[in-house]
Amino acid sequence: MSKALKSPPAPYLKELWTKLEVLRCVVVVGLPGTGKSLLVREIAAAAAAAGRNSSLLQWDVSRESWDSHPTASALFPEIDGVTHSGIRLAMGSWVRTTVGKWFSNHAGLEQLLIVEAPHIGGRFSELSHIVDDQAEQPLAGAETLFVLVAPTKELQLTLKRQRAADMEAGQGTYESNNASPDLLDELTNSLRGPAGELGITGSTSTGYDPGLYAGLMQHVLRHRHVLLVQPDELMEVTGSVYSLGNSSERLWATEEEVSASLDPVASLSPDELLQRTDSWFRF
To answer: Hey, what domains does the chain have and what are their CATH numbers?
Structure first.
């Protein structure tokens, strides 16, 4: 970086901010509704202030390339606000290829790749898998940091209420892609099965459990360099969390790339598709 980083926007980000100067890639991981998108924006802003350009890959934003593709939407339609398992698998294949290409095309620390990857239910969870491809070495190396966002239970409830209010107000273009509060509850409770299978226990029987969630995700991310961030207060939000400065660009899938990503999954049966996405934590 050509300039020193400014102070982090929240005390719990101090350790992350000290590491940013030597990172080429940051992957922000966590449940929907835990403040990932805002953190992505703040990382991009910090990089820009230090003289670096950034490239962004965000699950909910990248999904638009598949939502607008006629073959993808016909083969794998969204049902009750849930992205079809076929789309999730196709996007996972694409993101690994795209990350590998990015590292190949960008050397040094002038550029920063920022990825928002929920992982839950197979949403860009392929980034944590060991795969013999162009992306594996940089993803597993010290130049990449997976930031696991696990807010306190109190803050998660506040964020959930805030999301409900934002969706009711119809705020922002990309905000409309966010998971609904009901889906947030479903995704949160869906973690208990995988955690129990791995012998990870929590302190509550229902709802968001920070300990269970962090334990499960640290297992999923065991082959990567991980920093656990535990927010306990809201960061100040001005405008859309998806707004970017001039030093940031989004990486989109082309129509040809979407078509290519569908080929390996189009022949799978519905049961096979579900089995693969339900096994996002087993590898």
So the answer is: 19-269 (3.40.50.300)
